[in-house]
Amino acid sequence: AGRTGLTKTATILGTVAYMSPEQASGEATIDHRTDIWSLGVVLYKMLTGYPPFDAPSDAALIHRIIYEQMKPVSSLRSDIPSGVEDIIQKMLRKDPQERYQDMQSLIADLQSAKTRMVAVETKTSPSIAVLPFVDMSPAKDQEYFCDGIAEELINALTQIKDLRVIARTSAFSFKGEKAGVDEIGKRLKVQTVLEGSVRKAGNRLRITAQLVDTKGGHHLWSERYDRELDDIFAIQDEITLAIVDNLKPMLLGEERARIAKRQTIDLEAYNLFLQGRFFWNKQSGTAHKKAIEFFERAVQKEPDYAQAWAGMADCYTQLPFYSFFPPKEAYRKAQQAALKALKINDSLAEGHASLGFLKTNYERDWKNAESEYKRAIELNPGYASTRYFYSWHLTFIGRYDEAIEQIQRAFELDPLSLVINREIGGAYLYAGKHEQAIEALKKTIAMDVSFPIVHYFLGLAYFFSSRFEEAAKEFEEELKYMGGFDPIREGWAGQGFAFLGNLNKAREIQDRLLDESKRGYVSPYLIGTICFAIGDHDEGFMWLEKAYEEMDPYLGFLKPEKHFRAVGLDQRYIALLKKMGLEP
After folding, report:
1. Which domain of life is it from (predicted)?
2. What is the mean pLDDT of residues 62-85?
């Protein structure tokens, strides 16, 4: 079937493939921003060989231009510099207000990206995965120390411009596996791998490290360090600079200085910090509380340890998502820790990311939260957590296309992270792109079938696609993999069963949550959403108001959650959104 030959009106003119959404929908006001869109289509096609949208007929193509999300440029061509992709994505935003507002701004960004665009024609940017170092100590009790060294190297390398560094979660996913460097290179799409080992006995250290080419398997660099424990910071600097000298020999002086600029830390405090990070990375309420203990001991030994304060802030911000910890208390302690970290070191990206997360999920200070995320990205563009937090923020305020862009950025840095893969599906789901959500969430389940929350999101995607039997199966799967009572997961499951008309099961879950709330903190938002799904709106609004008063971080989902559309005109819903600083 060919093009349908739609009759063109006074406002729908030109080749359909190059039309902007406002032009394709026949809006009366068409201006220079439509031309910027069309130029974006040209650049997209020049770089990838494909148009951003295609279809067998004009009608289908117009539908895709108006409603569907284009594939990221990087998904079709992996060697595109991030700055170039950012420009094209901004040119092709659905909303004209979010595009470049004039050609001067576009030209300025294109000129600043010129050197990167030339580099695309000649070579790809260097990339690396730092694997967890192997514990060769006699007692085999230094896993936290080995992991910590590798993570510190990752953090140092992410500060290097145009060096793509795989985040910890993905790099450490090979821990204990016998995967070869060629397989690791293919799965993570990196050119090089850093691997090493640590032998720690008393105050003596032996660290070996080797940089390996993933295609040929040959060593680009290797070194053995026999030093005192006091030299650990110098060793990390030497390894980092050796890697950079091999991968990016034209390193600018200020970048080299930034790598070597390290806060002098008490060794015992550093050891405690590494143990805190070890437990933080286990991502559970119990582990986070254990991590806080180590971070607190670290700052007792070293009061100006900015990274330890930032680690404490991270733990407190996340506790209400993993446990019964009251949000108001979590917010107060997280804010104190984040502000302390930034007072010590305002250039710490982790501190700005944590502060942004607090402003999004607790303060609802949307404008300043965005400023914190942008500052964190400026300081450390390779820190995947910032992109992940920023994606949530954009979803909460209804900027869905941008949310997808940011979570795709996080995925490039951390492709094997279950949380980030799940959030890709979530971003598509809240954007109303249900087929893309289903595809992404099924991929996540293939990575780990026992990840409960993914089954809930997949169930929702099936439900909103009218695939009710498949939705019911996924909600049951969520309960199956919970492994005991979990009020947060149960809350999501209760909504799911109510959506499908299984009100008895939904009320059974609701009763369990109400009973548990008498003994400890349970999210009022999740109890309220079950009320709405059942149809009890008055009770639901009571719980939402309680969620607002208690700074429930889940309340951020109020705008994107589709099941609130039934009460979208209710003045109580509109008033609550306005109290949160959101447009209805």
Report:
1. Bacteria
2. 79
